[in-house]
């Protein structure tokens, strides 16, 4: 499945840990936004790791699942392209 995942981490010590974890699962498209092509088990694994890493009362991670039709309708103004290469990720 194709997901857009964004995060807002309140603590500067947790922030690089979350970013490093996210880089294992997807492609950074903006500072705290990643595009990810994940199986259901990879998504569950990532969510579990994030739950252990973040402070739920101060941090926020949002997962937006995009259907195939939605992915065909993504518009980018400026530099960048939509993530397509599933083999790039090493979750």
TrEMBL record:
Subunit-structure text: Homodimer, forms a heterotetramer with a Cas1 homodimer.
Pfam family, one: CRISPR_Cas2
Record flagged with keyword Nucleotidyltransferase: no
Family matches, as CDD domains: Cas2_I_II_III
Upper taxonomic lineage: Bacteria, Pseudomonadati, Chlorobiota, Chlorobiia, Chlorobiales
Protein species of origin: Prosthecochloris ethylica
Keywords: Antiviral defense, Endonuclease, Hydrolase, Magnesium, Metal-binding, Nuclease
Superkingdom field: Bacteria
Residue numbers binding Mg(2+): 8
Class of the enzyme per the UniProt entry, highest EC level: hydrolase
Protein family (similarity comment): Belongs to the CRISPR-associated endoribonuclease Cas2 protein family.
Name of the protein this chain belongs to: CRISPR-associated endoribonuclease Cas2
Cofactor: Mg(2+)
């Amino acid at each position: 499945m194709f997901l857009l995942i964004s995060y807002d981490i309140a603590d500067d010590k947790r922030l690089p840990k979350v970013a490093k974890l996210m880089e294992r699962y997807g492609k950074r498209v903006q500072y705290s936004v990643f595009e990810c092509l994940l199986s259901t088990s990879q998504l569950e694994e990532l969510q579990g790791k994030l739950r252990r890493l973040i402070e739920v009362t101060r941090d926020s991670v949002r997962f937006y699942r995009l259907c195939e039709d939605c992915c065909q309708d993504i518009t980018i103004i400026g530099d960048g392209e939509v993530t397509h290469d599933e083999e790039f990720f090493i979750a």
